[in-house]
Every structure is written in structure tokens, then in C-alpha cells.
Design goal:
210 residues
Length: 210
């Protein structure tokens, strides 16, 4: 288990919550209650639906959030240098928040299974949906904690996305700047191009008529 030491606390929370959410999605999230003529109302023992059965498109969003959290953890464990335009921690945070809000919406507004022959079939809440809400919140919290550990803000992520994730190269102290182009070299001074005159002779002039 030493390889788990590579993970930050936020990554551990996000990865563990993602695994738990996937498991909880197979639990019963809703029960079934029928009501009909004469004021009859009652739950149906053993009837209900998991997240896969009763949440329409929401399971797709939950699975994407789970995959994103596990990818973030996998990249860290593999010491991968791959870096998407938007940091994985930001992606996990956003998907975790969206997942939690969608589950919360279904808690506030449970699905209806319709009515048949004057008998209405409605959904009641089961323990699975509350466990799923906690796990989705854990993904969001773990992703946000990882963002803070990495010193990343949502503004930074937006800047990286708009800039394509690329930054101009910077010169470091160990890398000298490139030489200037030839056109910027200063012209040679005239004195350096003309040889100096020979020094005058210090001996006496030759005798005339000799």
C-alpha cells in the first residue's frame, strides 16, 4: 500500500468517494408506494429501483464523475506527466458538484411511476440515494481540496482553458539568452579598420652628396 502515499488527502477522498458512489448506485434509491380509490395507500415490499433504474440520464453524469476522479488518482499513481488544458482536480470538483446537485434534485422531487387504472404509483426515498449524495459530495470535496493543495483556483483553470494551456518559454538562470541577430551588431569603428602610420625615424639624415 506504499504507492498510496503518492496521493494527497484530497485525491484519496475523491478516489474513495468515487468507488463508494459506484457501489451505492446498485442500492435501492427509491421504494414504491401505491395509492388508489377509497384512499388506499401503502408501500410495496421488495419493490424499488436503483440509480440505474429510476434516474434517467443522471447515472451517466455520475459515471463520468466517477471516471474523472479515478483518472485523477491514476495519473498521480503513475507519475504521469500528462496534463489536460484544465487541471483534473478542477474537472473532478465541477463534476462532483453537478452530481450532488442532480441527486439532491431527485431527493426534493422524486420520480413518479405513473398511474394505472386509477391507482397511482409513486416513488419513496430509500437509503441508497442519501448514501449516493454523500459520496458525490465527497468527490466534490476531494477535488476541491486537491485544487487547494495544488494552489489552483477556478480563475487559473479558466485562464488555462482560454489560453490552451500553453505559456511562452521563459529564460532561466541556467539557460543563457540567445545571441542577438547579426543586424543588431554595432558597426566597427573607422579607427579599427585603418592601420596606424609607421613611427618616425629617430636616426640622423644621410649626408648630402656622399
Amino acid at each position: 500500500m506504499d504507492h498510496l502515499d503518492k496521493l494527497s488527502p484530497g485525491e484519496k477522498i475523491a478516489g474513495g468517494s468515487a468507488i463508494l458512489l459506484f457501489i451505492f448506485m446498485f442500492f435501492n434509491w427509491f421504494g414504491v408506494e401505491v395509492s388508489g380509490v377509497g384512499g388506499f395507500s401503502g408501500s410495496v415490499p421488495g419493490a424499488g429501483g436503483s440509480a440505474w433504474d429510476a434516474l434517467e440520464f443522471i447515472p451517466i453524469v455520475l459515471v463520468i464523475a466517477i471516471i474523472a476522479a479515478l483518472v485523477m488518482v491514476g495519473l498521480r499513481l503513475a507519475d504521469s506527466a500528462a496534463e489536460p488544458p484544465v487541471p483534473m482536480s478542477t474537472i473532478v470538483t465541477v463534476l462532483g458538484v453537478i452530481s450532488a446537485l442532480l441527486i439532491l434534485f431527485r431527493i426534493i422531487d422524486p420520480p413518479s411511476f405513473g398511474s394505472f387504472g386509477g391507482v397511482s404509483v409513486d416513488a419513496t426515498l430509500s437509503i441508497g440515494i442519501f448514501l449516493g449524495l454523500i459520496a458525490a459530495g465527497g468527490i466534490a470535496f476531494g477535488g476541491y481540496s486537491t485544487m487547494k493543495e495544488e494552489g489552483i483556483t477556478f480563475g487559473d483553470a479558466a485562464d488555462r482553458l482560454s489560453g490552451g494551456g500553453s505559456t511562452p518559454p521563459q529564460h532561466t538562470a541556467s539557460t543563457p539568452p540567445p545571441p542577438p541577430p547579426p543586424s543588431s551588431m554595432p558597426p566597427a569603428s573607422p579607427s579599427s579598420q585603418t592601420p596606424p602610420p609607421p613611427p618616425p625615424s629617430s636616426g640622423p639624415p644621410p649626408p648630402a652628396g656622399g
